[in-house]
Amino acid sequence: LSMNDTAILLIDHQVGLQALVKDFDIVGFQNNVLALADIAKGLNIPVVITASVPEGPNGPLMPEILEMFPDVAVVSRHGEVNAWDNPEFRAAVKKTGRKQLIMAGIVTDVCIAFPALSAIEEGYKVFAAVDASGTFNEVVRYASWDRMSQNGVQLMTWFSILLELTRDW
């Protein structure tokens, strides 16, 4: 990972979707998400944020994310399950000028796996922040991790991402 070629994509970290996260303790999960967001903020790495139907049952984004990035326009999606299918989201990613994408979100098997695989098809190098992405249970988690890793997505934790980016204490 290179700080000069990396963008962080926060996908569907919405209050209503957090109820679906059963493969992590919810407080620990939220802390992992905020740690990844802090990496973007602290290292001045471009961040792209998207939410799926935030005015509906998925609910708004985690308020801490919105507070952390008041100047980042949230891409609201209205129907696209795969965020990559949303032209505004893809344009926001392309606008960063970065080719290494760190992705995290809810739920791992859809909201991360689908755009991760799509981004790889378009030539991006993709890293999934697995401890800042949650899903229904461990079976679903491991199936999605397996699918992604077999297709070139590198699985990492927020802490290993931080240390690989900074390469120094």
From TrEMBL:
Gene3D superfamilies given in the database record: Isochorismatase-like
Transmembrane segments: none
Residues of the Isochorismatase-like domain: 6-158
InterPro entries linked: Hydrolase_YcaC-like, Isochorismatase-like_dom, Isochorismatase-like_sf
Matching CDD domains: YcaC_related
Superkingdom of the organism of origin: Eukaryota
Family: Belongs to the isochorismatase family.
Official protein name in the record: Isochorismatase-like domain-containing protein
UniProt organism field: Linnemannia exigua
